[in-house]
Amino acid sequence: MVQVITHAARRRRTRQPADRSLRAVRVSAAVLASVYLLSLAAHGLGDDGVLAALAVGGKWLFIVGLTGLLVLRAVTVPEDRAVWLLFAAAVGSYTVGSLGYALTNGGPAPIIRPIWADLAFIAFHPLAAAALFRLLRSRMRRLTSSMWLDAVVTGLTAAAFASAFAIGAYLHTALRNALLVAVYPIADLLLLVFIAGALAVIGRGAGAAWWWLTAGTALFVVTDTVYAYQVAHGTYVIGGLLDVGWGLAFVCYGMAACQAPRPRTSVPLPGVRALVVPGLCAIGALVLLLRGYLEDGDPLAGGLAFTAVVAALARTALTFREVRALADSQHQARTDELTGLPNRRQVFETFRAADARMAAGGTAAVLVMDLDRFKEINDSLGHGVGDALLREVGPRLAGHLRSGDLLARLGGDEFVVLAADMDEDGALALAERLCATLARSFRLAGMALSVEASVGIAIGPRHSRHAEELLQMADLAMYAAKAGRSCAVVYDEERHGSGRYRLEAVAQLRRAITEGELVLHHQPKLSLQTGRVDGVEALVRWQHPERGLLFPDAFIELAESAGLMGPLTRRVLDAALAQRRAWADRGRELTVAVNVSPSNLVDEGFPDEVAGLLARHGVPATALVLEVTESLLMADRERAVRVLSALRETGVGISIDDYGTGYSSLAYLASLPVTELKLDRTFVSAMNDSDRSASIVTSTLQLAHALGLVFVAEGAEDRATVDALAALGCDVVQGYHLSRPLPAEQLERWLQARTATPVA
Ligand code: C2E
Ligand code: CA
Ligand code: CA
User: Is 97 part of any domain?
Assistant: First the structure.
């Protein structure tokens, strides 16, 4: 709901300025329209001096004012400024023409054309066409060559139409001025057909401005055609009913200027040349038409030619639509809907070019980037925020790429960069820049969010000659980067390996779990109130037969992705409780903390398993603490809460691990059945050097106490930190200053030495 409101608010914000500046335009338009209607009314009411003066004055005020209105629109609304200036020039030019016409001839009979004012009249058309063209350009990012051709065809077709209806109709009347008069409807038709074509390209959502322009131009076509006809037959009367047509056409233009600007629409791609044939048809038809009418030839040729022109017109309209549909579908197929970035499909297309370049001796780097803990942002802040973040990531990253580099979204929160002619150093430097740019906070839904990312890098042709393989390798390296919590890792066959290597590693880990290659190291937790070590955290290690002692970052991720987290945790719990029992039997009552993973907490059978293990080892539930990271609590909330509650009911303690690295609020966490809060070591280790970290430690501690939670600080690496924590009232401290995690017997010796000479 929050996001919905924010979106609406944002929309309002962006709309407001245009609306406000349009207000002046709209008020002026209303005034001008009223002036024009009043002048019409005055004209209709009678011929006496005052009314006639009112009618004429109102008309001039209206047409001169309209030019001003269009200038006002251009000045007050920055969008489409050139469009409205061109329209203002067009209408202004028309006004000058009208003035010239009125000055040349005050009488009711039409004058013999051309006169100088015709130059100003006819200038209206190219200026209006230029304005329409700019308006179309502002709506479409690119016009295809076929659209140009379409424009030519439609122009020719329109000319044929005009000649059929206008030129042919009165050429034989031998009026010397008729040809020039006939130019106007032709030019109007050109404008109208251009607008029709533009509407076909823009499609639905063209906006009211286009429709007003269509109405205005259509009125021009009709009025000018009738005018030409009347002039040819000597029936035109100045100030007659026909003149209203021009006035209303201009009112429509004024209305168009009152409409809010619209954003650009999708990008059409270079399109078909399917219009050559209909174009030639149209030209042929036109030649026939002209010949048929000029020589007063047979009506059959004229009729056929006319039909051909109609067909060409229909074809043109259809092609406009087709080009657009084709362009849209091609564009959509290659871009990601959410971010507008190229998608997987386009990536694979680009890979073919990269392969060719590598075959020719070039190099290429593939960088796969995955945002860290994106799921958490989605889960805790909502998909709206998650989506907004993804949309902002693209432009940020793009700012650090060269023009030829490809940036695409592979899906989810995974992005890829394909950079030609880039070596390992270049790729590593780029990855660092990308990580750094994401670390700068994003403003989303009224809060500042920064994200960390992990990048995997593969370099061709060193790692592979095929971009697609490079992508897989970069992906594997990316997982290594994530596990190692580093920004970027370059692929290494030995360490990250191919699928074969991974399968082998999973088989080895499975064996390690069942054959007892997993061992525990224990790190003491010191209670600051009593000065005693009351508990330990059990941390898993893999005693690998060939590779030696491995730390969790080398295999936890693998266990998680291979579905081995259940067996692993069971194994660790079993060993930790067995150890706890052994210590108890020798008179040491320690609580043991065991880390559990997301997959454990979605397993509804987990609480029973824990209870079973406690019973088997004869360990009271209160001697066990399960450490759960925030991310895990956010992932599948409902189920996690059910499992946690069941665990808590057995009496087991629940600790929130790595607190502060996620995005959840403490208030939410406190509503869960938890007993302990473990502030992440990044804050603790920095608290004596950074005021910010120090104040985070202080405020979290106060909040934890207010919520009745035990406050644990992990990562205390020196005496000063332990002292500072003690002074603040911290309950429990853990860190290298006391001891690194140790095998059980070493820990026992450490504990013995400690009780002999207590230090803190
Ligand atoms: P964690 O739960 O935050 O464990 C604490 C880690 O911080 C341990 O690394 C420990 O050696 C290290 N540490 C302790 N004191 C200090 C200090 O003063 N300074 C610094 N820089 N580090 C300190 P370790 O053992 O490599 O474990 C890493 C992570 O692996 C653990 O983070 C935990 O998330 C995971 N993990 C370890 N054992 C298990 C396990 O049995 N099951 C599961 N699911 N995860 C485990
Ligand atoms: Ca832990
Ligand atoms: Ca931790």
Answer: no
